[in-house]
Design goal:
The structure holds two protein chains of two kinds.
Chain A (H helix, E strand, L loop, with lengths): L2 H39 L4 H5 L13 H32 L3 H15 L2 H16 L4 H25 L3 H8 L5 H29 L3 H4 L19 H10 L3 H38 L1
Helix pairs in contact in A: 1-11, 3-6, 3-8, 4-6, 5-6, 6-8, 7-8, 8-11, 10-11
Chain B lengths: L2 H13 L1 H16 L3 E12 L2 E12 L3 E5 L6 H8 L9 E9 L2 E2 L5 H7 E4 L10 H11 L5 H14 L3 H4 L12 H13 L5 E5 L7 H15 L3 E5 L3 H7 L2 E6 L2 E7 H6 L4 H7 L5
Helix pairs in contact in B: 1-2, 5-6, 5-8, 6-8, 8-9
């Protein structure tokens, strides 16, 4: 075999091997999607989306309370995590100097990698024990804690992409630093920050562990924020572990809905961001 | 002066015409030169411990165009950014010496006040992520100069002042990013003019533009000259020669020569100036 054919053979072999590895990497996602669609799609019907769970053993019913509960928890998480995260990101990017951002960024990275069950325990200790009972508030707080570091780092990164000359344009007109940040810097990267928030929400939407001993679960509509509340991930967890065939079916359906929502948010926000970046580059 | 003293002066004039003519001649150089708008005396400038300007002294004349030329890194932009204290955005940057705007020290003025009086146009067009209208209205809003109908008039007037009105009057609500580079730079000028500055600093305003846009901006400078003092940093010596009444030549942090443009370009006093202008370096 001469040198050239050897090189060609190596090239061909390696391109096949890498292609196979790439395929292997996306296979789990494809399997999950396919499996969920096959198993779950048949169980999604109007009753599933609008009715409360039926008592154990009875067939039918739905997860309307869990869908609403997940929404409620995410709203609470956003109320807690977004303002703190965005303002913190503004501080890091615009005011922090050198040392403080480094520390906070490091802490945020650590917080992101803390196992979510630990966050659950933290929320249990801080909120549930104090209040004396499980509640939507505690669950929202736990998800908010998970949201916080993602939003902080994301906001900071997008603010840093805003060029100096844009800030200077505003400062040169006599505007103050805060006015410049609010009226020029944030609008320049608003879509990036918003997309980051949506992606972070999509990520925590599927968390089960932090909710197990904070929001707990609820077979009925939660009355107010002080009550335990149902959520899709916890429902999936409980239904999947139950011995009933009908519950298994509903767990698949719930998983499909959860995944569809997360995918939808993901794809939409990435599309918006991509278009935004393209139009910026054109300008 | 009282009436009596005026009368007395007139009488002396009549009595001794020769002497009063002589006095007039002595006054003449003063009168021919417009008033000094910006007076720099011994400006030293440091980034941390690194000195980048050495004892800059210059007098910039009111309602005239002054060009600052020199090779890259010679300190002309730093000097420009000292006038509106834009250098303060850089940590550890420090200016020393005396810099007067009319009679007040630039270093003593409140920042918003200073920057209302001394506008700046940057090298790269930098429209805000807002509509064309909102870009121009930004400054007046910040300083509470106008609102409602007055603001609309002010925006129109500023856009006309920047020779942009006819091109954008039907698309004021469009994003400023939809404009071409040259239009964006004229929008930046309109935005600066909207707060009616006394001085406008231009930091290589044409370096990112094509020749036609450059010509438009240069033309524009002549129309603005009547209402404010212009200081333009440029790499382009032909541009300095075309537009400027006065020219300062910077080299390695020093102001080598400052004079009227004609003298700088035809009869420079210093050898370095001549070498630079004739293209021997830089």
């Amino acid at each position: 075999m001469n040198r050239l054919t050897w090189r060609r053979t190596v090239n061909a072999v390696m391109s096949v091997v890498t292609a196979l590895c790439a395929l292997a990497a996306v296979t789990p996602l494809l399997f999950v999607l396919g499996f969920l669609t096959v198993k779950g799609a048949s169980s999604i019907n109007w009753a599933f989306l609008t009715q409360l769970p039926k008592p154990t053993g009875e067939v039918g019913g739905g997860m309307a309370n869990a869908i609403a509960g997940s929404g409620q928890l995410l709203l609470l998480a956003a109320l807690f995590g977004v303002p703190l995260g965005v303002l913190g990101g503004i501080y890091l990017s615009e005011f922090g100097g050198w040392a403080v951002p480094l520390l906070v960024r490091y802490a945020a990275d650590l917080l992101v990698s803390v196992p979510s069950i630990v966050i659950g325990i933290f929320a249990y200790a801080v909120v549930v024990v104090r209040m004396g009972h499980f509640s939507a508030l505690a669950g929202g707080f736990a998800l908010g804690v998970m949201l916080l570091p993602i939003v902080v780092t994301n906001t900071e990164q997008f603010l840093r992409t805003v060029p100096v000359w844009l800030r200077e344009g505003s400062l040169a007109l006599g505007a103050g630093q805060w006015k410049t940040i609010v009226s020029v810097v944030i609008p320049a990267c608003m879509q990036g920050i918003a997309t980051g928030i949506l992606l972070a929400l999509a990520r925590v939407a599927g968390e089960t562990a932090p909710l197990l001993f904070t929001a707990l679960n609820n077979s009925y509509w939660a009355r107010g924020w002080q009550q335990p509340v149902a959520s899709l991930p916890v429902m999936i967890y409980e239904y999947a572990l139950s011995p009933y065939e009908d519950y298994h079916r509903q767990a698949w359906a719930a998983a499909l809905i959860l995944l569809a929502l997360v995918l939808l948010v993901n794809v939409l926000s990435r599309l918006v961001l991509a278009r935004r970046m393209a139009s910026r580059r054109a300008a | 002066m009282t009436e009596a003293s005026v009368a007395r002066a007139k009488v002396t004039e009549n009595v001794n015409p020769e002497k009063s003519q002589q006095a007039a001649r002595e006054l003449e150089p003063e009168r021919a030169q417009p008033a000094v708008k910006i007076k720099a005396r011994n400006i030293d400038f440091f980034y941390g411990t690194k000195q980048v300007l050495y004892g800059i002294s210059a007098e910039i004349r009111e309602r005239k165009i002054t060009a600052l030329i020199g090779p890259s890194g010679c300190g002309k932009t730093t000097f420009l950014r000292t006038v509106n204290r834009m250098y303060e955005t850089v940590k550890n940057a420090r200016a020393e010496g005396e810099l007067l705007l009319d009679t007040e020290s630039v270093f003593d003025l409140a920042l918003p006040n200073l920057r209302r009086r001394v506008g700046m146009v940057f090298q790269k067009p930098n429209p805000f992520p807002k509509s064309i209208f909102e870009n121009v209205a930004y400054g007046p809003r910040v300083h509470g100069l106008a609102n409602g109908v007055r603001l609309v008039e002010l925006v129109e007037q500023s856009l006309r002042g920047a020779a942009l009105w006819d091109e954008v009057k039907d698309s004021l609500n469009k994003s400023a990013f939809s404009l071409s580079g040259g239009q964006q730079q004229r929008l930046s000028i309109a935005r600066a003019l909207a707060i009616d500055p006394e001085v406008l600093l231009l930091d290589e305003p044409c370096s990112a533009l094509d020749p036609i846009s450059t010509a438009k901006i240069e033309e524009l400078l002549f129309t603005i000259e009547g209402r404010c003092t212009l200081v333009i940093v440029t790499h382009n010596m032909a541009q300095a020669a075309r537009v400027a009444d006065y020219t300062g030549f910077f080299l390695m942090g020093k102001l080598v020569e400052f004079n009227d443009t004609k003298t700088i370009f035809t009869n420079p006093a210093k050898k370095e100036t001549e070498d630079y202008i004739t293209g021997r370096f830089g």
